[in-house]
Amino acid sequence: MTAQTTGSTLVDYDDAVRRYDPVLGIEVHVELGTRTKMFDGAPQSFGAEPNTQITPVSLGLPGALPAVNGTAVEYAIRIGLALNCTIAASCRFARKNYFYPDVPKNFQTSQYDEPIAAEGWVDVELADGTTFRVEIERAHMEEDAGKNVHIGGEGGRIHGAEYSLVDYNRAGVPLVEIVTKPIAGAGDRAPEVARAYVQTLRDMFRALGVSEARMERGNVRADVNVSLRPSPDAPLGTRTETKNVNSFRAVERAVRYEICRQAALLDAGQAVVQETRHWHEDNGTTSPGRIKSDAEDYRYFPEPDLVPIVPSREWVEQIRAALPELPAARRRRLATEWGYADAEMRDVVNAGAIELIASTVAAGATPAAARKWWMGELARTAKDREVELEALPITPTQIGALQQLVDDGTLTDKLARQVLEGVLAGEGDPAQVVAARGLAVVSDNGPLLEAIDAALAAQPDIAAKIRGGNLGPVGAIIGAVMKATRGQADAARVRELVVQRVTEG
Amino acid sequence: MTDLVRLSAAQLAQALTGGQVSSVEATQAHLDRIAAVDPAVHAFLHVSADAALDTARAVDRARGAGDDLHPLAGVPIAVKDVVVTRGQPTTAGSRILEGWVPPYDATIVTKIKAAGLPVLGKTNMDEFAMGSSTEHSGYGNTHNPWDLDRIPGGSGGGSAAAVAAFEAPLAIGTDTGGSIRQPASVTGTVGVKPTYGSVSRYGLIALASSLDQAGPVTRTVLDAAWLHQLIGGHDPLDSTSLTDPVPDCVAAAGAGAAGDLTGLRVGVITELGGEGYQPGVLARFRETLDLLTGAGAELVEVSCPHLDYALGAYYLILPAEASSNLAKFDGMRFGLRVTPESGSVTTERVMAATRGQGFGDEVKRRIILGTYALSAGYYDAYYGSAQKVRTLIQRDFAAAFERVDVLVSPTVPTTAFRLGEKLDDPLAMYLNDVATIPANLAGIPGISVPAGLSDDGLPVGFQVLAPVRADDRLYRVGAAVEAALESRWGGPLLAQAPELEVAR
Lengths: 505, 504
Fold this sequence. Notes:
The structure holds two protein chains of two kinds.
Chain A (H helix, E strand, L loop, with lengths): L2 H5 L5 H7 L1 E11 L38 H13 L3 E2 L6 E4 L9 E4 L6 E9 L5 E13 L3 E5 L11 E5 L6 E7 L9 H19 L11 E10 L10 E6 L2 H20 L8 E5 L4 E4 L12 E2 L10 H9 L5 H12 L3 H9 L3 H9 L4 H9 L1 H9 L10 H12 L5 H12 L5 H8 L7 H14 L1 H8 L6 H11 L6 H14 L1
Parallel strand pairs in A: 11-12
Antiparallel strand pairs in A: 1-9, 1-10, 2-5, 3-4, 3-14, 5-6, 6-9, 7-8, 10-11, 12-13
Chain B lengths: L8 H10 L4 H19 L2 E4 L1 H16 L12 E4 L26 H8 L4 E5 L33 H8 L5 E5 L6 H7 L2 E4 L20 E5 L2 H11 L17 H9 L7 E5 L9 H16 L3 E5 L7 H16 L21 H12 L2 H14 L5 H24 L2 E5 L15 H6 L5 H6 L3 E8 L5 E7 L5 H19 L15
Parallel strand pairs in B: 2-3, 2-4, 7-8, 7-9
Antiparallel strand pairs in B: 1-3, 4-6, 5-6, 5-10, 9-11, 10-11
């Protein structure tokens, strides 16, 4: 069955979630940002020439032995604690045996029945501000595999390829895998919960300093399990596991797609096949993965080359005490400090603007001004350009400087928007744009009075009305002055001067 | 044969220090001896004459310059081919690694090179150390210097034969279930399996990770002590490596050679003797016990009831770990690669063809056993139960060592059997290791020293076992036995070995 044919038999999403209760299970892998790999001294760095970040251990050469990276263990404990897990007093590595060219030893060193962290939970915030609690089954340490590169086929796929190359730079990079318990009770919000959960973890990894957590580099990867059951009190249905769903949006779409696809099967009286599926970003569908003949018997056994990991209670408590403020707590604190209403803060969070605003405030702007820029003009620009806010070519420091120019009267709001445009166009910092475009407010009375006199002379009837005490048409004079000064005058100041001039005269 | 190759390592070291001989002369003498007898013995898979002589020259220069050298500097050594050596082929006796030249040295090789020991070459072995006769080598049999029609033991038959045939004064072996001690026993040499974790395994091509241990293969107990101290010690690259300092084995050997064992409690293991043991082997064992009593030791009968299950547990744990350790030999990154003759060329089919052609029968047998033992649904019954037996054996030994200082047994139930005699009977072959396997399961150290000749004129070994970390006791007792027996024989046992025919 191809993705195209399954795509033709979907149930409408709203119908699907009306008739079935979706249950999720999510496995998130995060690559830890340690200097060296999980079990050897090879450096790990993204984007290096293939097969340069390797040692005999990463290549699984005969005779090579693993030695555990202590920093990776500490990072795993940080993650476990942040997820409210119990940290095991003693845990072990195990071998997961399977043959694949990107796994140098033909087994992955992982953890099986003794993970370092288990039994936790995390609250995820949804777009409407409500929270949903996701229970964590376990978090365990393991090593990443290398990467196969298929040459000669279409779009780098193995099908039709002439030959394949393997890059072992990534082999042995430390991973923590976080496995949820079945996530039930989300109902029609299951796709949103899935997305919010992965995003919450991503933010947490960054806050904990354990990973750059860049989705586009594969630092964070999600496998999404979905099953349907007729009602919340029915036993769990058969699940599918969609592998390597690697963006927040894709997580949401993949869950949604699987719900619609499985609902169609169940409606037709067919069984859902328990299988792994691939996500296709291009058309938003999933398709069945390769069927393995030896049906997943990984022959796990304790890794005899490593001794158990026994983190002392003192060490765990030190790590706990040193945990940084986590994103949810930080959001609550900032909302209070900034005086934002709940709805305002939610919009800021949903727009991914929280760190940008924090930095802008740090650069001197008031929280209100910072929010006005990022959620206003800049949000519109980002939307027009179809990019994330943080991808705009402007920094919080520049916004801080721009606001400073408004506050000290150098720029009017209108002028400031022109300066912003210049900064976004790559013309430099706000001060440089002001200078280059000659945009500063004309505050010298001489040129203003000159323009006022010219405007009064050009419109004698209006001048007469004003002189007669009717200030109604003063706007026409102000408009003419603004035009003459190419908008660089402060309108309120012009008004004052006009009134002054007329009374004098 | 020059007298140089007859010298023990300690004697040769003394001659080197005293300036009576240069390392180049000593190394060349051994290379000549290899050229003369190895065509018949086939102890070596690879001889690295140039590299060995380079090292020898460097040591001679350093000595001439008055540098501070390791006591064994300049004394040549042979290394079992399961230990990786940078720039020298390393095959582990398998065709699947034919032509592979490692880009790095094992930690023990780094230590050997740093100490200035010229590495003569790599010695033959059963493929991936699976076997007790070296007949499972992918590169032909090694012959026992006492009788070329007989096996030299295994898996380290090459190292033992090299030392017994005076091709090297020192050799490195590895012992997973007896692969150092059993060859020592059947070739009339000395072999030591140190405490698990006391010698780094980094760079040993793994057979069974929880059982493997490298150790000395020599002609005298003192030489073994020197080599043990050279290769022992903590290695951060091996997570199972102990942090304890190496015990003073040389001092212990010296003390033992003085002959006084007063107050030493020696436990005779009930389960390791009797049925299945050759009468000549048991006779030499009992005579050796008498010598120990004569030296002041107290004999105690000790039972370790769970040893009866050792062989069964071993043949589950070893194949299980081996099946996983040997998975990396797939033709993808190094060594042999076989492309299927017909059909599609997928990675799976290349892996299968490579492993099918590259591995020998015994290796395949154990991979199949181990894969089965680890399979879902069988794990608890096989691997899990075997680990429990292992714990019980460790407790037996711990209880025994509450009562005695060392335990003793014959090293092997028999003398060297004929080449081919047990090749088609794996179980009979496995039974040859019944007395050596328990030490590996428990992680305790053991030594085999020559105890004389059996009725068939072939060497018999005497095994001493000590508690973990008490390797020095092996040397004290081993040296005492050696001294007492050699004074009875009027010289080393190997002096009674037949002269080997020299190739021309």
